[in-house]
Amino acid sequence: MNTNDTTNTTIDHSLGQWLGGVHTLLRRAHDRVLEAEGISRRDWRMLRMLHTADFSTHRLRGRHIGTLVERGWASPTISGWQLTETGTATVERVTAAHAALRDELAASVSSADLDTTLRTLETFARTLGWDGESPLPRGYGKARRFGRGHNGRHRGHGGQRLHGHGYGHARRRCRTVADQTVADQ
Fold first, then answer.
1. Is the whole-model pTM more than 0.70?
2. pLDDT tens sequence across 144-170
3. Distance CA 104, CA 166 (A)
4. Is the dihedral of CA 33, 38, 41, 75 positive or negative?
């Protein structure tokens, strides 16, 4: 990684492009760490939950924890689930790899630049409505989900229902809104 090399820096991207791009690059780096251990994102979440929480009151379904049990990372107890020694060692290795990634990123800029960047991002978050006490929001919320909208209609179809008899593959083509309008006349 280039440290403090700004000779070929292009600043012609918007803030949103930079934030989104860096987020994607961070996720890819995170995925490479997990891939090196042969762990999926779901497995990692489950390992972390078992490592940090008391699961005596939680009921985890077998399909969610089955991979961890098969790999010898988790075992059932009378009151829930627990990590095995192998599972704990895996969590510690991945956690150390993530810490090394964070250290590498922090070392790529001066501490003053990193402090300024973090303060700037906090200011942006507060300007956009974050109160400073609640956790930072994650994801896009309901507005980006697929499926049925608030009015019960499918998104992406313009509210038109073009399914069922006469609209499927039996006619070798799907009927469009224009076809429906002509057929209704």
1. no
2. 545 545 555 555 545 455 555 554 554
3. 59
4. negative
**Distance, CA of 53 to CA of 83 (rounded, Å):** 11
Which backbone phi and psi does 43 adopt, to 5 degrees?
-60, -40
Kindly state the tokens that stand for 10: 């292009």
Q: With contact defined as beta carbons under 8 Å apart, do 84 and 72 qualify? A: yes
Q: How far is it, in rounded angstroms, from Cα 124 to Cα 112?
A: 18
Tokens 């499926």: give the residue: 147
Whole-Å CA distances, 166 to 11, 173, 185: 53, 10, 16
**Tokens coding 92:** 């510690």
User: In order of start, what are the domains of the chain with their CATH numbers?
Assistant: 15-108 (1.10.10.10)
User: Cβ distance 50 to 74 under 8 Å?
Assistant: yes
- Number of C-beta neighbours around residue 71 at 10 A: 16
